[in-house]
Amino acid sequence: MRVMVIVKATEDSEAETNPAAGHLDEILEQMGKFNEELVKAGIMLAGDGLKPSRFGKRIHFDGKKRSVTDGPFAETKELVAGFWLWQVRSMDEAIEWAKRCPNPMPGPSDLEIRPFFEAYRFIAGSFRSGFPADQVAGGCHGQGSRVVIPFPTEAFFPFHLIIF
């Protein structure tokens, strides 16, 4: 299963202050070693840190209307400072790896682990995540060397997953 491990932002990460300035090299070294372990174990697919929300934009959807809001965004506890994409056998394995992670922030911090919807769950006849197969719009069909899997009902996801 694939999971996203989300490093939650803190007030310090959003302000780009570094209360652990004297320990930054140590923190980066520990995180580098942890990332190497993840790669060697075949767990880590991707990962990176994000700039503070003041560099970001939010796009708000309301029917056909779109509006853009410039960062920074007020609720720090809802913001993301970084992420990993991991391939694990189970949520329990993801939790075990996350518990081994060095603290990604100088003070208290949180990681959030979220599983991805896997493509096979959206193929007509084998949909297994709570939506009946007949709600899969149009089934699964090939387009050249790609497979296009429509997501169920536009109320759920108004787009298609394309697998190359």
Would you tell me which CATH topology of the largest domain applies? Answer: Alpha-Beta Plaits
What is the H-and-E element order? EHHEEEEHEEEE
The radius of gyration is 19 Å
What general outline do the C-alpha atoms trace? flat
- What is the percent of helical residues? 10-25%
Question: What is the structural class?
Answer: alpha+beta
Compute the number of strand runs: 9
Domain module tally = 2
What is the CATH architecture assignment of the largest domain?
2-Layer Sandwich
Distance separating the two termini: 19 Å
- The CATH superfamily of the largest domain is Dimeric alpha+beta barrel
Work out the strand percent.
25-35%
Query: Largest sheet, if any?
Result: 4 strands, antiparallel
Strand order of the largest sheet: 2-5-1-6
Please write the CATH class name of the largest domain: Alpha Beta
Give the uncertain stretches in residue-range form: 129-164
